[in-house]
Design a protein that fits this description.
- Helices cover 33% and strands 19% of the residues.
- It is of the alpha+beta class.
- It has 3 domains: 28-412, Alpha/alpha barrel (Glycosyltransferase); 415-449 and 456-514, Maltose phosphorylase, domain 3, CATH 2.60.420; 520-682, no CATH class.
- Strands 2-7-8-9-14-11-12 form a 7-stranded antiparallel sheet.
- α7 runs parallel beside α10, α8 crosses α11 (209-219) and α18 runs antiparallel to α19.
- The longest helix is centred in the middle third of the chain and has 18 residues, at 276-293.
- Mean pLDDT is 94; it is low at 4-19.
């Protein structure tokens, strides 16, 4: 029986047994078979989870921005060898599809689906008898790892067994041929990216040779587990200039995107090995990233290579979306609430903060303290001067190809199936999920909320008849005092825990949740503080002056494409007046506004207007505006075209106390996110500025 015939038989049996009154079985969605450890949760088929509310607007903006149009004007995609052209034949085509395909099928967007079908048709037709596939001029396994992820997503959404057949033959090729995973090449340090698809295939088919193929990759590629145990590139390595700023074997281990991908590799192997050493390496690695290179928003620095904790250091956009995907896979395996907390931080802070709200432009490097966006020399490790402008392809064009996976992959993983035939909320936000639960009933569960801007959540159910199934609901670690009300009951949940509500749910039922969003602080570089509310960091709203800049490449002038420098039109060098930096709520007020058509836009952002054929200034405020007292610190200035390190807190000053305004990090293009705080004895009357 061929793979295609075998899978068609499985699909037919599944359809026949999809009634509500079948006997109980282990689960409706496949977990790891055989002697493998069972994962804590199970990813649902692509398209099961849909964005709602403001999150639907965010993904719509993505379809109207670069993702929806890039392959119609960027030569690397227009002429891509991945769809039969004579152009780029390495990673850019697969990278683009890694976002396009999930976006198309999550939104059921007919135009994007047609694009996806054309790309995948070309890839499928490229497959050779020996299992290799893709452009004939590519002999590197690295882009095939991304293309494998793409083909499985396409199969997941459509059931296309031709795509599945290509994948099975390719993994058989990896099983049967000699290892080719050198430490001094991308395919070597990123070899275990193949395991994401390999394990998905194993869950689907149960083919006994697939684990052996993955083991062959694991044992013959760079040892990231040992790397996390010894972690050579720590704070001391930064201070002593020992980081290897090169593209050789040692430099590739310090490369920020490789690190963002690799943090999931020990976790992937843990499924097969059942050795706690590999589980420990994941959490040890995340802790070391935070301790030595941590930045606000859940990310770690790397303006190409790891670069320390100074808030002027950059983080590459590719690292943000790859760390998000790593966390999504790790949560599936371990179910640890801290992983989902971090995922929300990345999705709701670092991801929107490094693109324009209309998603027509992106940065290569974002900064926590970013007071000037310009083509100027900065203290990057290895990146070029244009790396932090918002544009089409500042610095390397890899992020232009790879950025698209961020939002749709996040939505895809917001809900998961559970091993007790229920559903789990992974990340909070406006969404809905349609899935099989209980004894075989299909239900739709919808989350209505303005989270992360607000802490109120309402969950509603749609089902043909009442059905009992467990609902796993995560309480974020910051949400002390969370209350959940349902069926006449009221329960308080423990912060950082997951509660399981095993009830018979009907279409008349609701669950109302209140996450208390108390203002809190986080200690940062030089004893500075970051302000948080819920999963959001809040940054100084700085006046913005946008100007278009001409770079050394052609940005093609297509629709909303532009390259922007942004200069401050207001002061930024403030220290916060906090009576108690550990409990900062006193003297702080919060203004809530409804999320707009572009949820992470704030006043003064430039937005592409298709109707007007030009960019226009956005005139609505961010969804949350926080007022706080602050004092200007004249001696805190610029260094090498970035904000200098914050002066050591507490800072003494005789300046006048003013009211300043903070908005969500993701709503800023210019920002201060790590603030010095003042000696409160220096306070003088407040000067009100208006919001």
């Amino acid at each position: 029986m061929t793979v295609k015939t075998k899978l068609l038989a499985v699909i037919t049996i599944t359809v026949m047994l999809s009634g509500c009154d079948q006997e109980e079985k282990p689960g409706h969605y496949p977990n790891n078979p055989g002697e493998f450890l069972k994962n804590s949760y199970i990813k649902l088929p692509l398209g099961s989870v849909k964005p709602e509310g403001w999150l639907g607007d965010q993904l719509t903006a993505q379809t109207e921005g670069l993702t929806g149009w890039l392959d119609e004007f960027w030569p690397d995609l227009v002429h891509s060898a991945w769809k039969g052209g004579d152009g780029e034949a390495w990673e850019r085509g697969p990278y683009y599809l890694d976002g396009l395909i999930p976006l198309a099928y999550i939104l059921d967007d007919r135009r994007l689906i047609k694009k996806s079908e054309e790309w995948v048709g070309s890839i499928v037709s490229s497959a050779a008898e020996n299992g290799w596939f893709g452009p004939s001029k590519n002999r590197d396994r690295w882009p095939l790892a991304v293309a494998s992820k793409v083909l499985f997503s396409y199969y997941d959404a459509t059931g296309d067994t031709d795509a599945l057949e290509v994948l099975m033959k390719y993994f058989r090729y990896l099983h049967d041929n000699e290892p080719d995973w050198p430490d001094d090449a991308w395919r070597g340090v990123r070899a275990m990216e193949h395991a994401v698809t390999g394990y998905q295939l194993y869950r689907l088919t149960g083919e006994s040779w697939l684990p052996a193929a993955i083991e062959k990759i694991h044992k013959n590629s760079f040892d990231w587990t040992n790397y996390y145990e010894v972690f050579p590139w720590d704070s001391a390595a930064v201070a002593e200039n020992r980081l290897p700023l090169n593209w050789k074997a040692d430099g590739l281990t310090a490369h920020v995107v490789n690190n963002a991908m690799a943090v999931k590799y020990p976790g992937l192997w843990y499924q097969q090995s059942a050795d706690s050493r590999f589980r420990n390496a994941v959490f040890e690695g995340l802790e070391k990233y935070d301790r030595h290179h941590g930045q606000v928003g859940g990310r770690f620095s790397g303006d190409e290579h790891l670069s320390g904790k100074d808030p002027a250091r950059g983080t590459e956009l590719c690292a943000v979306v790859e760390e998000m995907f790593s966390l999504e896979k790790l949560f599936e395996i371990f179910g640890e609430a801290t992983l989902a907390d971090r995922l929300e931080q990345l999705a709701y802070n670092s991801l929107p903060g490094t693109t324009t709200p209309d998603m027509w432009a992106h940065q290569y490097d974002q900064q926590s303290n970013q007071v000037l966006v310009s083509v100027d020399k900065r203290d990057w490790t290895t990146n070029r001067d244009e790396s932090n402008i918002y544009g089409l392809m500042p610095n390397f064009a890899c992020c232009l190809a790879n950025m698209h996976q961020g939002w749709p992959r996040f939505v895809e993983h917001m809900w998961m199936a559970t091993n007790d035939r229920g559903l789990a909320v992974v990340a909070w936000g406006p969404s809905s999920v349609k899935a099989m639960v209980g004894k075989g009933c299909q239900v739709t569960v919808k989350t209505e909320t303005e989270y992360p801007f607000d802490g109120l959540v309402k969950i509603t159910f749609t089902a043909e008849k009442p059905v009992r199934f467990p609902l796993h609901l995560r309480t974020p670690a910051w949400a002390e005092g969370t209350t959940m009300r349902y069926k006449g009951k009221s329960v308080q949940t423990e912060a950082g825990s997951t509660i399981i509500l095993n009830e018979k749910w009907s279409s008349a039922d609701t669950i109302e949740i209140s996450f208390p969003m108390v203002i809190r602080t986080e200690s940062r570089y030089n004893n500075s503080v970051a302000i948080l509310r819920g999963p959001l960091y809040y940054s100084l709203r700085i006046g913005k002056e946008f100007s278009k800049v001409k770079l050394s490449y052609d940005n093609f002038g297509f629709r909303g494409v532009a390259d922007w420098e942004i200069r401050p039109s207001s002061d930024w060098n403030y220290g916060l007046m906090l009576d108690n930096p550990g409990k900062p709520a006193r003297g702080i007020s919060i203004i809530r506004n409804p999320p707009g058509r572009y949820p992470f836009a704030d006043r003064g952002d430039m937005i592409w207007s298709e109707q007007d054929g030009e960019h226009i200034a956005w005139d609505k405020p961010a969804p949350v505006v926080i007022s706080v007292r602050a004092v200007k610190i004249p001696e805190w200035g610029m260094k090498n075209n970035s904000a200098d390190v914050p002066p050591l807190s507490p800072v003494r000053s005789t300046g006048v106390s003013e009211e300043i305004f903070l908005v969500p990090y993701g709503s800023t293009r210019l920002r201060i996110s790590e603030f010095p705080y003042m000696d409160v004895k220096a306070a003088t009357p407040v000067v009100r500025q208006g919001n």
